Amino acid sequence: MALAPLFSGTLTVPAIAAPMFLVSGPQLVIETCKAGVAGSFPALNQRTSEGYAAWLDEIGSALSAHRDAGGRPAPFGVNLIVHKTNPRLMADLTITCKAKAPFVITSLGAVRDVVDAVHSYGGIVLHDVISARHAEKAIEAGVDGVIAVSAGAGGHAGTINPFALISELRPICGDKMLVLAGSISNGGAIAAAIAAGADLAYLGTRFIATRESLAQADYKDMIVASGSKDIVYTPKISGVAANFLVPSLVRAGLDVATMEPSKGMDLEHEAKAWSTVWSAGHGVAGIDSVLPVGELVQRLVAEYAEAGHRLTAYRGTNP
Ligand SMILES: Cc1cc2nc3c(=O)[nH]c(=O)nc-3n(C[C@H](O)[C@H](O)[C@H](O)COP(=O)(O)O)c2cc1C
User: Fold this and answer.
1) What's the topology of domain 5-216+282-317?
2) Residue 19 CA: which ligand 1 atom is closest?
3) What's the rounded Cα separation, in Å, for the pair 237 and 254?
4) What's the CA-to-centroid distance between 141 and ligand 1, angstroms?
5) What is the pLDDT of residues 162-178, one digit of tens each?
6) What b-and-e string marks burial along 36-52, b requiring 16 or more CB atoms within 10 Å of the CB?
7) How many percent of the chain have pLDDT more than 70?
8) How many angstroms does the Cα of residue 20 sit away from the middle of ligand 1?
9) Which residue's CA lies nearest to atom 13 of ligand 1?
10) What are the sequence ranges of the domains in the chain?
């Protein structure tokens, strides 16, 4: 177990709000960090590298002001897609280093040069993985921790049960950080992740249904109205298997049963696909309202404490 010092003493609940394409913007990140959960966003949520730099400035200034006013915000992170079809990677990495983003989440590729660049200014790198093999490769590339993306997660989910994945990855990670993702939408599930051996929990879908997310109102309402039966896992939309809201496919006139499979993965095609259909994980189950981030985090903190009491009470009756 090894929570990086960056996160120590700033979190009200041990969690990161995950980066989400077309969903996470500066307001979501700022309010999340102020409430004591680490916020993050994908660099590609801004159309240009210049726009990305402007968002980093906006977030950095807001969190500095909060600090100056006596607050202790959680750190924020950015997501860089390390894939040959991302033409902005090098420009965005340079901007990330200049702004000294406290942590970087890399997806699709773990590359030593990217890790070294982030380490050069004191940042840390967490890398998304869905299997033990991916985790081993990321650790070889020098990352500071892995994010175990299990079955049922929003976005490019894995297929492995979270309890199995965490048991498999904990020994591989050793003293590196291990973050667990997949359908974690309340404080009890955050507590379960920590009890199972994670250093932090990673929440995506739950943060779509917040006042500050960039998702349109219909998308937020669909999350509240949906259950796990409304989620389909398919590679047919963008070439990489991901979880999508079935009602959003129906609205777009798509039926995965009869659709032709998408041809391979490229980011341009992927961006188009995700703007017409909406992604969410099985964690839609139990999301009952769209909340301001501050209120959501208060609720997560209370649920996390309740889960702790349940664990202690059980131990008390079973010495
Ligand atoms: C709408 C949506 C967009 C996402 N976009 C990205 C992304 O751009 N980069 C990334 O690394 N992960 C992305 N993800 C995955 C999340 O970062 C995270 O792994 C996932 O949401 C966690 O599972 P949960 O949604 O069940 O909480 C996305 C997920 C969703 C739901």
Assistant:
1) TIM Barrel (3.20.20)
2) 17
3) 9
4) 23
5) 999 999 999 999 999 99
6) bbbbbbbbbbbeebeeb
7) 96
8) 5
9) 20
10) 5-216+282-317
Q: Is 19 close to ligand 1, i.e. is its CB under 6 Å away?
A: yes
Q: Which residue has the tokens 């950015």?
A: 78
Q: Is 128 in the pocket of ligand 1 (CB under 6 A)?
A: yes
Q: Is the CB of 238 under 6 A from ligand 1?
A: no
Selection from 202, 185, 204, 195 nearest residue 1 by Cα: 195
What are the DSSP calls for the chain, one per residue?
Answer: ----GGGTTT-SSSEEEPP-TTT--HHHHHHHHHHTSBEEEEGGGSSSHHHHHHHHHHHHHHHHHHHHTT--PPPEEEEEE-STT-TTHHHHHHHHHHHT-SEEEEES---HHHHHHHHHTT-EEEEEESSHHHHHHHHHTT-SEEEEE-BT-SBS-BSS-HHHHHHHHHHHHTTSEEEEESS--SHHHHHHHHHTT-SEEEESHHHHTBTTSSS-HHHHHHHHH--GGGEEEESTTTSS-EEEEHHHHHHTT--TTTPPPP-S--HHHHHHHHHHS-B--GGGTT----B-HHHHHHHHHHHHHHHHHHHHHHHHH--
CB of 153 closer than 6 angstroms to any ligand 1 atom: yes
pLDDT digits (tens, 9 = 90+) for 222-233: 999 999 999 999
